[in-house]
Design a protein that fits this description.
The protein has nine helices and 17 strands. About 25% of the residues lie in helices and about 25% in strands. The chain is globular. Strands 3, 4, 9, 10, 13, 14 and 15 form a seven-stranded mixed beta sheet that branches. Strands 1-2-5-6 form a four-stranded mixed beta sheet. A two-stranded antiparallel ribbon has the order 7-8. Helix 6 (about 260-270) packs across helix 7. A hairpin with a 2-residue loop joins strand 11 (about 205) and strand 12. Belongs to the peptidase S58 family. InterPro entries: ArgJ-like_dom_sf (IPR016117), Peptidase_S58_DmpA (IPR005321).
Length: about 375
């Protein structure tokens, strides 16, 4: 079940954009390819900063690694050069290689000079481990899944147990893809998360501690005939990828500062960036592009002044937290490998889906 927008608590005081999604930032598109076949519960999600050729017209970007338990590709060059030259891809841990190769092939198809007259390409792939629900050892994702996600990219897209989020878990329930946006100081800030982190006892939504309720609901569900026996609490060992887009004119250094504020939104949900959790944030701006060819003119526009960044920092924290809430609210229960199942949060705590609960959060 997908709950209506009115039933989802709104984080913070800033207004959302019309979609309350990262695609409220003009030019940004998102696409999914979902593989849901028995033990294979996984997928690919792509985020496009603009609809043109990202290799020839790169966008400024920067990342923050809150906890580096991850196997991503491409972060070193982003840190060095401060630009993106492919779409951002999200997938499971063991599919990073297949997806990065698909990114390279797609870029070469658009620009045959890559790797010959022009330099090679920096693919950018982030991952989380979906191995509880997905048979990750099967390595079932192929280049065709990346191509399908790329072809499906648009401004309207599903959230929850779709694309890269298909097999992800969060707080002991179903996690996945979530997105949100905020309007601040005349600019738009949008976020998209791949949520696969958190322990049930720590769950906090809009400032309300729900961990005790969730633990009780999980214990009751596990006591049902045929349900998996309750396990001892484990330390946090999942991951989350947080992508932030904005139309504000920021350089790579400022974007790194913006990306770091994703950690504030993540922490509010109950995460402490645990030892085994890979927590990575990346921010990019759509305000201008950086040409690949030296003969092309460099952009000449004023960057936002440092003293005007605070509203964007607040927006980034709020929309990351909101995106995590959306991932939890919009996910459906999924069964996968060896009979493993993750129930949706709103199946376990159905009162969360009411407007009365939203009103209680706002009071």
């Amino acid at each position: 079940m997908v709950f209506p927008r009115s039933a989802v608590p709104h984080i913070g005081d800033l207004p959302a954009g019309p979609r309350d999604a990262i695609t409220d930032v003009a030019g940004v598109a998102v696409g999914h390819a979902t593989l849901a076949e028995g033990a294979c519960q996984t997928g690919v999600t792509v985020v496009l900063p603009h609809g043109g050729n990202l290799y020839t017209d790169k966008v400024p970007a920067a990342a923050s690694v809150l906890n580096g338990f991850g196997k991503s590709v491409g972060l070193v060059q982003v840190e060095e050069l401060g630009v993106l030259e492919t779409p951002i891809a999200l997938t499971n841990t063991f599919s990073v290689g297949a997806v990065s190769q698909a990114q390279i092939r797609a870029a070469i198809a658009a620009s045959p000079e890559i790797g010959r007259a022009w330099p090679t390409l920096n693919p950018l792939v982030f991952e989380c481990n979906d191995g509880y629900l997905n048979d990750i050892q099967a390595m079932a994702l192929q280049a065709s899944h990346y191509d399908a996600a790329l072809a499906a990219a648009g401004t309207g897209f599903a959230q929850g147990a779709v694309g890269a989020g298909r097999g992800m878990s969060a707080f002991g329930v179903k996690g996945g893809i979530g997105s949100a946006s905020r309007l601040a100081a005349g600019h738009v800030v949008g976020a998209l998360v791949l949520a696969n982190f958190g322990t049930p006892d720590a769950l906090t939504v809009a400032g309300r501690r729900l961990g005790r309720q969730l633990l009780g609901a999980l214990a009751s569900a596990q006591a049902l005939p045929g349900a998996e026996a309750a396990a001892e609490p484990e330390p946090e060992k999942g991951s989350i990828i947080m992508l932030i887009a904005t139309d504000a004119p920021l350089d790579a250094r400022q974007l790194r500062r913006l990306s770091l504020r994703a950690g504030a939104g993540l922490a509010r949900t109950g995460s402490v960036f645990g030892h085994g959790s890979g927590d990575i944030a990346l921010a990019f701006s759509t305000a201008y592009t950086v040409p690949h060819l030296a003969a092309a003119p460099m952009p000449a526009l004023p960057m936002l002044h440092e003293t005007r960044l605070d509203p964007l920092f607040r927006a980034a924290a709020d929309c990351v937290e909101q995106a995590i809430v959306h991932a939890l609210w919009r996910a459906q229960g999924v069964s996968g490998r060896d009979g493993h199942r993750r129930q949706a949060l709103c199946e376990l705590l159905p009162g969360l889906a009411s407007e009365a609960w939203e009103s209680a959060c706002a009071s």
